TrEMBL record, chain B:
Name of the protein: Cbb3-type cytochrome oxidase assembly protein CcoS
InterPro entries: Cyt_oxidase_maturation_cbb3 (IPR004714)
Pfam families: FixS
Length: 771, 59
């Protein structure tokens, strides 16, 4: 290719590369900034995408055809989006195509009379981008509309605030009041005109939020923001009407703009995070293959499956419902449910659970439970319940905010009454200046500014933060509970020890096993992947659920269970033999993630207690616990046990952070005070978690804890400053000493200090990440 | 200061114009994807490339 030899990991990737060349889209390789995903050799069956009912729900008619928005995984950088865009536009019958690498979404407009959707998706799948259903056409449109609406608000706030500032400048610069009254009032009315849409259109989210909070009888952040904006705006209006000494329109407009900016930034960081998790949620057209009474097969939607139907599950597909196995033998990977990574052998009549993945051979299942009766649905319900019963962490911001608002309102009333008694003519003016100077601008900037900076820093670190209150929980955490498989350890096993018999050389035994396993897609093969293959194996036959047989170096070898390979009682290890005599025994073990130890130590240094809770047996858990500085290790834990463990810790007053990856961890992830899911883990686990690690490096957890704590510290500093400034200004305002210029200056300086302080979070983090 | 009576409405009109342009751009989806379009110009069109080569030979 281009005169250079390229090696491909599989025929799927090679085919994709060939097509890209032949279509003259080779620039993809020079544009991309991240390596592409691996392309599967077996393309998924996409005929389900042409179904009428699916298109009716997910596509909407536009001029010339239909339009649909899809999610895809494997889009890693803008070049992928570019490639998808070009590849689709080459197809006949496509009139519109667009891909967005940030959100992982692909938009296709096509003419159904010229080309079928499945053909287009086949092309995408061939390039390594598997299509998944997004949340429906209506939902997708709303998402885009929402994003645009926020952008509009921000833009209008920015332009309006700028203009308000310009006009106010003219008023400010009139130091000695030379300006004629009529000119001054003209300026004020124009400023009022410009400021109004900023406060009421751009600032609407705050006003609506305030109304919501008031209805729930609680004073929160939005109340603080809305009351300070409205205060500055309404006070200015009153002053304009009665020709008072000063107006504060600029403060109101700038304030809305700054807060909106902080909120849009924070939302963007979280929006990108959650749209990436959406992409991992992998909703597909839910189809199952049902066997009719006469043995023929048909594709049916999941919802039309009934108890008693027989469904066929292909290798690599997931079981659509709970059922009993009809075939004599099958292998299912139940990692999603149990956390156990090794596939489980099943014989006829044994239960098969929805969501488990069929391995090695296709299977037929007689359905016993559908829909909400399945084990999978039970777990999902458990997640929802756990989330609802999460102990609330009192939010610092809301506590300080509500105290402040209450105190301010009380002070205002007292002062008004006091001045009425002392000097009725100045009562209104003094109260107004008190309200303006102690306007909690800085206070309400304190949190959003810090959060916006932190979310950006977290995303750069590779931690996607999905829920707003995750950070606070992480900062307060006292205990960390780790799942074992897939979290502390890697999913693939490694070879730890070889025992040989009958004069076999260990290296020779490994070489023979590697040759046999080389082309097997079994998870165990990963253990031998690093071994250089010196032998050539021929005539490899897979004996389902038992092992492999093949000829290596003029001899027939059996690799698998002890009974299969060496005619001995099964002990769960991997044996190599000639069918009767044993030659070698391989000890396979899950491998600890390389950085697990370091991460655990770092967490300990941060003062956190570390627990391990695993579904595996006692010995495996103890072996792991002995290698890590853990407080307690719990073995044989079901999802419910893990949740009980976390609840127990919470009752003792601990704030628990949970780190897990599997579906079996999802309920406990939802129930813990703060939870982190691994990026390679189950989709439901990620949905239940507060944060998702995009790269499988555990070292990001202590880094994230540190960042969360620093954020908390900065927020507290900001609060201290904002409250301190107000305490200082209050006596001056009460005695009627505050000049308008002083009030404006104080407000601006305190807001500026708070924002700058929050920006430190970004700078410090950047240096840390690069180191 | 009578000139203000003209200048300020003028500035307001410019503001309205700016907001109008911004609203148009957002509605047309100009801000939906900030990364992919930037790559488009980095790639020459294959047809143009051939044409350019011909021109070079001719000149």
């Amino acid at each position: 290719m281009d005169g250079a030899t390229q090696s491909f990991c599989c025929t799927g990737c090679a085919a994709a590369a060939q097509w890209i060349r032949s279509a003259e889209l080779g620039d993809y390789y020079s544009l991309r900034s991240a390596a592409g995903a691996r392309v599967d050799v077996d393309l998924p069956d996409l005929t389900g995408w042409d179904r009428e009912d699916l298109l009716a729900e997910h596509a909407f008619p536009v001029a010339g055809g239909l339009e649909i928005t899809l999610l895809t995984d494997g889009m890693r950088c803008a070049a992928c989006a570019w490639l998808i865009d070009r590849a689709l536009q080459r197809e006949h019958g496509v009139f519109d195509a667009g891909a967005n690498a940030v959100t992982g979404r692909v938009r296709i407009g096509w003419d159904p009379s010229q080309i079928r959707l499945s053909q287009l998706l086949q092309r995408l799948a061939m390039l390594g981008y598997r299509p998944y259903l997004a949340g429906g056409a209506v939902h997708e449109r709303e998402r885009l509309q929402e994003r645009r609406r926020w952008l509009l608000r921000l833009g209008i706030a920015g332009l309006g605030a700028m203009q308000t500032m310009m006009l106010s400048e003219a008023l400010f610069l009139d130091f000695h009041h030379h300006m004629a009254w009529s000119t001054r009032d003209f300026f004020r009315w124009v400023t009022f005109l410009v400021c109004t849409p900023v406060v009421f259109y751009a600032g609407w989210p705050f006003l609506a939020g305030c109304w919501r909070e008031l209805k729930q009888r609680y004073l929160g952040m939005d109340t603080l923001v809305a009351s300070s904006t409205l205060l500055a705006y309404l006070a200015s209006m009153v002053e304009t009407l009665r020709g008072g000494a000063h107006v504060w329109y600029d403060a109101a407009a700038m304030f809305v703009f700054l807060l909106l900016g902080a909120r849009v930034l924070e939302q963007r960081a979280r929006g990108i995070a959650s749209s990436q998790v959406d992409a991992l949620a992998r909703a597909r057209p839910s189809l199952a293959v049902r066997e009719r009474a006469d043995g023929t097969r048909e594709s049916v939607p999941l919802t039309s499956l009934q108890v008693g139907d027989v469904v066929c599950v292909a290798v690599g597909e997931t079981a659509p419902a709970d059922g009993a196995l009809h075939d004599a033998h099958a292998v299912f990977e139940e990692a999603l449910l149990t956390g156990e990574s090794r596939p489980v052998d099943k014989s006829a009549g044994e239960p098969v659970y929805a969501g488990t993945i069929c391995r090695e051979t296709p299977a037929r299942i007689g359905i016993t439970q559908v829909g909400s009766g399945t084990r999978l649905s039970q777990l999902t319900r458990l997640v929802e319940q756990a989330q609802a019963h999460r102990p609330p962490i009192a939010r610092l911001a809301d506590r300080v905010g509500s105290l402040f608002v209450a105190a301010l309102l009380a002070a205002a009333v007292l002062i008004y009454v006091g001045w009425r008694w002392y000097d009725p003519s100045r009562a209104f003016e003094v109260t107004l200046s008190l309200l303006v100077i102690s306007c909690p601008c800085a206070l309400s900037l304190a949190v959003p500014a810090a959060l916006a900076a932190t979310h950006g820093a977290l995303a750069r670190m590779g931690v996607l933060s999905l829920r707003p209150d995750g950070l606070e929980g992480l900062a307060k955490a006292t205990d960390v509970v780790f799942d074992k498989t897939g979290t502390l350890t890697q999913v693939q096993p490694t070879l730890v020890d070889v025992q040989t018999f009958a004069g076999m050389n260990p290296d020779e035994a490994i070489a023979i096993a590697a040759a046999l396993e080389r082309d097997s897609r079994h998870p165990i093969a990963a253990a031998f992947a690093a071994v250089a293959v010196t032998h050539h194996a021929t005539g490899i036959r897979l004996h389902e659920g038992q092992g492999l047989r093949g000829r290596v170096a003029e001899a027939t070898w059996y690799l698998g269970h002890a009974r299969f390979a060496a005619d001995r009682p099964d002990d769960g290890q991997l044996w190599l033999g000639d069918g009767h005599q044993a030659f070698a025994r391989f000890m396979l073990q899950e491998r600890l993630r390389p950085e697990a130890r370091e991460a655990a130590q770092a967490l300990r240094q941060l003062g956190l207690r570390i627990h391990v809770a695993s579904g595996d047996g006692e010995s495996a858990v103890q072996r792991l616990a002995s290698r890590l500085p853990v407080e307690q290790a719990h073995a044989r834990q079901t999802s419910e046990d893990k949740l009980a463990l976390v609840r127990g810790l919470q009752e003792k007053g601990s704030v628990v952070a949970m780190v897990g990856d599997g579906l079996n961890d999802a309920p406990v992830l939802a129930g813990a005070d703060v939870s982190i899911a691994m990026g390679e883990g189950a989709a439901l686990a990620q949905r239940a978690a507060d944060m998702v690690l995009t790269a499988p490096s555990l070292m990001r957890i202590p880094a994230a804890v540190e960042l969360a704590r620093r954020t908390q510290r900065i927020i507290r500093q900001n609060f201290a400053w904002a409250v301190g400034y107000n305490l200082l200004a209050l006596p001056l305002a009460i005695t009627g000493q505050v000049t308008p210029a002083l009030a404006a200056l104080g407000m601006a300086v305190s807001s500026l200090i708070v924002t700058t302080n929050a920006l430190r979070l970004m700078r410090l983090k950047a240096s840390k990440v690069s180191s | 200061m009578i000139i203000l009576l003209m200048l300020i409405p003028l500035s307001l009109m410019l503001l309205a114009l700016a907001i109008g342009a911004f609203v148009w751009a957002v509605r047309k989806g100009q801000f939906d994807d900030m990364e992919t379009p930037a790559l488009d110009i980095l790639r020459d069109d294959p047809v143009d490339r051939r044409a350019a080569k011909d021109r070079d030979h001719a000149g």
